[in-house]
Specification:
It contains 25 helices and seven strands. It has about 550 residues and is mainly alpha-helical. The longest helix has about 35 residues. Helices cover about 60% and strands about 5% of the residues. The strands form two sheets. A five-stranded mixed beta sheet has the order 4-3-5-6-7, with helices on both faces. A two-stranded antiparallel sheet has the order 1-2.
Length: about 550
């Protein structure tokens, strides 16, 4: 029974000693990667850097108990951090006690939303967020994230923080205020991060840059020349705290909580499924929602901020040899030890270095290749990417993703409202029926119109169905029989059935044209029977193939 609710009881009793070395190695490497990243992402979220470490303890342990992915690395990520800043900064000033309190409440709300979605099996709702929307949104958000760190990179306190155009404009106007040493530290850090990542990918580049920058600032005392440092990082574990819940705060935070719940889960499940496919085990989306929800709920009581599964760290975790969630537990334990014994080592860490880590990390999220692919395959899908990307840049993070989702749904509905249709003819050499437009040499009969509709039929496309059918009947005035090939119709609603009946009766009464159906699928056939078609029209909808329908016409059995 416990296995059903806590997957740890499924993998832990079967744990193999041979997996231990891989789990320990992965746990250590991800911890080394997560310490500077967690601090950097917390800063991006408008929080003290230590909260990024707090968010990398309890949530990781909870997810290891309840998550179904064996290699997913849960923790702070850039996208969610920016969403936190975007949503909460409209209510409170980043860095203040009120702001931190609201972030804890936001984390609790996200956890509850994800938990309820998992329990109620609502994971399918994320399918309404297309890959084109996510890619366009992520690409724009990566640019916003990168430019939001420009103030730390140049040592100028910019007033603009989320509008990329205002950030660039203000930077140009205040170029004379740039601190050369701060800019040098940031640029050198970026160069080192890129160089080490490309030349020696197995080395934890962020940690090396962090250590080098701390030593440089300490020995040269660069903080006295205007280079901003983190300063005192609280030592010890986070104390148990209760998020302050008020009705006003709940209402204000609900839109961003829903956005992060969906976006965070999308990022997490995409990576979890990709790794699970390679390792040939099953990830259960609704259980993943439950695991992430409980991780966020747990973290909200220990001074964390919203977490999810990250792309880069999960890839590193997997490549480093992680075999089970024990690797995640090891990561959390190492960060707990860091909080207890080593936070003092980060005193001289420059903010410019954390900004460099964020900029390099999010650069790979700008997915121009995906945009080119979508435009090449289908321009409508490419337009979804472009609209989402531009809306996010011009209007903001939350507005961008909402516009993208709405536009993608409009494109979907538009496609269903104007589906592909075809008149069919007989291709003798292959003994099949094919589209007369694509196969001009097919045989057709003047008295029979074989018509295929390649979509489900519902209220929004019945008008198109009727218009195009009428056009073909006008072009073939000798038509006596219309054979409707329904092999491409997976679903039909009541309005469409009623409209179809009117078409059939009008054609029969006014023009003497009769209808017969082939390839009707079971669920559609069931609805025809509920509509009383057997009494109204006999067996006209029961023919399994076009040949059977034509044979019945020739033998006058209908």
């Amino acid at each position: 029974m416990l296995k059903k609710f806590m997957p740890i009881f499924e993998w832990l009793p079967k744990y193999k000693k041979s997996d231990l070395s891989g789990d320990m190695s992965a746990g250590l490497i991800v911890a080394i990667m997560l310490i500077p990243q967690g601090m950097a992402y917390a800063m991006l979220a408008g929080l003290p850097p230590v909260i990024g470490l707090y968010a990398s303890t309890v949530p990781l342990l909870v997810y290891a108990l309840f998550g179904t992915s064996r290699q997913l690395a849960v923790g702070p990520v850039a996208m969610v951090s920016l969403l936190v800043l975007t949503g909460v900064s409209t209510i409170a000033e980043p860095g203040t006690d009120e702001y931190i309190s609201l972030v804890l409440l936001l984390m609790l709300m996200i956890g509850v939303i994800q938990l309820l979605m998992g329990v109620l099996k609502l994971g399918f709702l994320v399918n309404f967020m297309s890959h084109a929307v996510i890619s366009g949104f992520t690409s724009a958000a990566a640019i916003i994230i990168g430019l939001s760190q420009l103030k730390h990179l140049i040592g100028v306190s910019l007033e603009a923080d989320k509008d990329v155009f205002l950030i660039l404009w203000e930077t140009v106007n205040r170029v004379s205020e740039i601190n050369p040493l701060t800019l040098s530290v940031g640029v050198i850090s970026i160069i080192l991060l890129i160089f080490l990542k490309n030349i020696i990918p197995k080395i934890p580049a962020p940690l090396i840059v962090v250590v080098a920058s701390i030593l440089t600032v300490y020995f040269l005392q660069l903080q006295d020349t205007g280079v901003t440092i983190i300063g005192e990082v609280p030592q010890g574990l986070p104390s148990l705290s209760l998020p302050a819940v008020t009705g006003e705060a709940l209402i204000a935070l609900l839109p961003i909580a829903l956005t992060i719940s969906f976006v965070g889960f999308m990022e997490s499940i995409a990576m979890a499924k990709a790794i699970a496919a390679k390792e040939k085990y099953k990830v259960v989306p609704n259980k993943e929602l439950t695991g992430l929800g409980l991780a966020n709920i747990g973290g909200s009581f220990f001074s964390g901020y919203p977490v999810t599964g990250g792309f880069s760290r999960s890839a590193v975790n997997y490549q480093a040899g992680a075999r089970t969630p024990l690797a995640t537990i090891i990561t959390a334990v190492l960060i707990i030890l860091t909080l207890i014994f080593f936070t003092g080592l980060f005193y001289y860490l420059p903010n410019a270095v954390l900004a460099a880590i964020i900029m390099v990390a999010v650069y790979s999220l700008i997915d121009v290749k995906e945009a080119k692919y979508l435009f090449r395959i289908r321009k409508a899908d490419g337009s979804v990417w472009a609209i989402t990307f531009l809306a996010t840049l011009f209007f903001g993070i939350v507005e961008g993703i909402i516009i993208g989702v709405v536009y993608s749904l409009l494109v979907f509905v538009g496609k269903r409202a104007y589906p592909h249709v075809a008149e069919l003819g007989y291709l003798e050499e292959e003994r099949v029926y094919k589209n007369i437009q694509r196969y001009p040499n097919v045989e057709t009969e003047p008295e029979n119109l074989i018509y295929r509709f390649d979509s489900s039929l519902f209220f929004a496309n019945m008008g198109i169905f009727e218009d195009r059918l009428n056009e073909r009947l006008i072009d073939k005035p000798d038509t006596k029989w219309v054979v409707l090939d329904f092999s491409g119709v997976n679903m039909i609603d009541a309005v469409a059935i009623h409209h179809l009946e009117e078409i059939m009766e009008t054609q029969a009464n006014d023009h003497g044209v009769k209808f017969i159906f082939s390839g009707v699928k079971g669920p559609v056939k069931d609805l025809f029977e509920k509509a009383g078609w057997e009494k109204k029209y006999g067996d006209v909808y029961k023919f399994m193939s076009i040949n059977h329908a034509l044979q019945a016409i020739r033998e006058e059995r209908v």
